[in-house]
Design goal:
This protein is of the alpha+beta class. The protein is built from 15 helices and 10 strands. It is elongated, with a radius of gyration of 22 Å.
Length: 363
């Protein structure tokens, strides 16, 4: 199929937005491929080793900053937003419920990668049906793409002090996706920054992962510790993790802009297997077969069973002292993984220390 020579490019851009809405994207923006202004910040972050063991972040630096090297011929990027929140309430109380597991909101339902990529493909198909042949490639958190920088340039929001993209009408509970194309579409104006003097996100971080506004040391971030890190969690960071077993939402929950967030209409993002209310002991008791079955199609699957148990062991160590928690931990003492075993022993030590404190106080 040849590209049409009589194509009305501005009109096509308008239709792309309409098609995006029909496909379930809450916002569609368009930008060029010039990301040079973001290069220095990325380079400095990497130089400080703030990416930890995420070696992939240090690779393909040039492709991240030059999208046409990732997809030759790219001239524009269509950036899309899809809301995922199914809670609505902005409260830190779930982090105070010590015997209940806290799973980040984005990970409670089905994995978004495949679903969003399929919809981006459908968007590309509609563009091709209208415009004729065009060179394109869809991405959903799956390649060296500076998705938040792209979204910021495309007018979807601004990168806030917590490094999340924030939309003034929708907060930050959303996923991003991109469609690289060689079509010379008109670009949108970038959004302005509206964090002002607020520093709620910087102050709330349980592990002090923010080194300043828009500067995150991933090595201290609970999302990194529970998802990206494959080895032992540093002991000094275990207690501040509380009951968070997969990811962390604190810096989003306290963001004032999230009062404008909307409940997602996507059923796929609704919590499965009671991951919004499940108890720590219940999840810790899952066998590996149960873990694999219940996390099929879930973002949680990628950390594997060993890290799942590691994370929950830490949370059980932080939970209120109880014989039930001690029994659950002791049941895992003979686990063949030393990673699991070490965290279980640490957690038992914490439980026993708290129990002794209670006994002393009751005298």
């Amino acid at each position: 199929m040849k590209r049409r020579t009589d194509l009305d490019i501005p009109a096509l851009a308008g239709r792309i937005r309409e098609w995006g809405a029909e496909l379930g994207f809450q916002q569609v923006g368009i930008t060029d491929i010039d990301l040079e202004s973001y290069r220095a910040h990325l380079g400095s972050w990497l130089a400080r080793r703030h990416h930890g063991e995420m070696a992939y972040m240090a690779r393909n630096h040039d492709k991240r900053c030059h999208p046409d090297k990732l997809h030759p011929g790219a001239a524009r990027i269509v950036s899309v937003r899809m809301d995922y929140d199914h809670v609505g309430e902005l409260s830190l109380e779930p982090m105070e419920e010590g015997d209940t597991a806290y799973v980040a909101r984005y990970a409670r339902g089905r994995d978004y990668h495949k679903m969003m990529r399929m919809r981006l493909q459908r968007l590309a198909d509609r563009i091709e049906a209208e415009a004729g042949s065009h060179s394109y490639r869809a991405f959903v958190d799956s390649a060296p793409v500076l998705e938040r920088a792209i979204a910021e340039k495309a007018g979807l929001g601004w990168i806030g002090k917590n490094t999340m993209l924030i939309n003034p009408e929708a907060g930050s509970w959303f996923f991003l996706g991109e469609l690289f194309t060689d079509l010379p579409l008109p670009v949108d104006e970038p959004g302005g920054e509206h964090c002002g003097t607020c520093r709620a996100c910087l102050d709330i971080c349980p592990t002090g992962a923010f080194t300043g506004p828009n500067s995150l040391d991933a090595r201290r971030c609970i999302s990194y510790l529970t998802i990206e890190l494959r080895g032992p969690i540093p002991e000094e960071l275990r207690e501040p993790m509380g009951n968070r077993i997969f990811g962390c939402d604190d810096c989003q929950i306290v963001c004032p802009w999230n009062k404008f967030a909307r409940i997602s209409g996507e059923g796929d993002f609704a919590p499965r297997h009671r991951l919004d209310t499940a108890g720590l002991r219940e999840l810790f008791a899952w066998t590996e077969e149960e873990f694999l079955r219940r996390t099929a199609g879930s973002p949680i699957r990628r950390i594997g069973y060993e890290c799942w148990l590691r994370n929950i062991a830490v949370a059980l160590g932080n939970a209120p002292a109880s014989e039930a928690n001690v029994a659950a931990l002791r049941a895992r003492l003979d686990h063949p993984s030393e990673l699991v075993g070490e965290h279980v022993r640490w957690a038992l030590g914490r439980q026993q220390k708290k129990a002794r404190g209670i006994a002393l106080n009751s005298r």
